[in-house]
Amino acid sequence: TPGIRPLVAGNWKMNGASASLNELRAIGHGFLGGLDSETEALVCVPATLLARAAEVLSSTPVRPGGQDCHAEQNGAHTGDISGEMLKDAGATHVIVGHSERRADHGETDAMVHAKAEAAWRAGLVAIICIGETRDQRDDGETLTVLSRQIAGSIPAAATPSNAIVAYEPVWAIGTGLTPTALDVAKAHTHIRAELAATIGSEAAGKMRILYGGSVKPSNAVELLGVDNVDGALVGGASLKAADFLGIAEAY
Ligand code: PEP
């Protein structure tokens, strides 16, 4: 989208240990070494790696992010991690409302809304994920589902600098399946129009809308070239520096 700086964001999910920091180092160096500086890059690592990831990436343009945060700052929530903790460990961004969190942990739109606000309270940029399931797509409900998720998950205080929307069709995540360029265009155009209703058309016009779901170097040029696609959220292919850098080269 004209005037929007593209973002390529990795999501390592529940993958990666100390040895993976080498891959992260290679990603950082790749962005140092000549990739279009117009493209912003981020890798959302497991919380266990965050502080070391921040160190590895500190002299590179690539930023470290978290994958989820609790809505509260601290308290009796064993096993949970707050936005403030992620920020303290070096994160600049956090993913909220990923479909795996929605499915595995029963996260509702209202919970995702609260997590986005928690991210802002901690000084993090929230990457808010939405997307339809296979059944919803087959029933022709894709755009209705997106409207509902936008209304429920994206706070009215969202701005182009504190929030990023990621459109991730659930059936395309980790499956190797992708929507057609036309379907991606329809979804992203719809998302931008719906955002305008929540946050106003000027802010909506500048908000980054990422596509996520089986992005690879081989399909990145096509998917990232679609109107209103302002970058990618990349799962599996972000675990290998060569693949992640190959996707970023689509710009
Ligand atoms: C994701 O989980 O955000 C994702 C897009 O995964 P993958 O690229 O592996 O489909």
TrEMBL record:
Q: Does the keyword Iron apply?
A: no
The protein's annotated pathway: Carbohydrate biosynthesis; gluconeogenesis; Carbohydrate metabolism; erythritol degradation; Carbohydrate degradation; glycolysis; D-glyceraldehyde 3-phosphate from glycerone phosphate: step 1/1
Reactions catalysed = D-glyceraldehyde 3-phosphate = dihydroxyacetone phosphate; L-erythrulose 1-phosphate = D-erythrulose 4-phosphate
- Residues reported to bind substrate: 11-13, 174, 214, 235-236
Alphabetical keyword list: Cytoplasm, Gluconeogenesis, Glycolysis, Isomerase
Q: Which GO terms describe its molecular function?
A: triose-phosphate isomerase activity
Where is this protein localized, as stated in its record? Cytoplasm
Q: Which Gene3D superfamilies match?
A: Aldolase class I (3.20.20.70)
For this protein, the record's CDD domains field holds: TIM
Enzyme class at the top of the EC tree = isomerase
What's one GO-annotated cellular component? cytosol
According to its UniProt entry, the protein's GO biological process terms are: gluconeogenesis; glyceraldehyde-3-phosphate biosynthetic process; glycerol catabolic process; glycolytic process
By its UniProt entry, which SUPFAM superfamilies does this protein fall under? Triosephosphate isomerase (TIM) (SSF51351)
Question: So where's the catalytic machinery, residue-wise?
Answer: 98, 168
EC number per UniProt: 5.3.1.1
Its biological purpose is as follows: Involved in the gluconeogenesis. Catalyzes stereospecifically the conversion of dihydroxyacetone phosphate (DHAP) to D-glyceraldehyde-3-phosphate (G3P).
Q: Which HAMAP family match?
A: TIM_B (MF_00147_B)
Record NCBIfam families: tim
User: What family does the Swiss-Prot or TrEMBL record give for this protein?
Assistant: Belongs to the triosephosphate isomerase family.
The entry describes its oligomerization and partners as: Homodimer.
Q: What is the official name of this protein in its record?
A: Triosephosphate isomerase
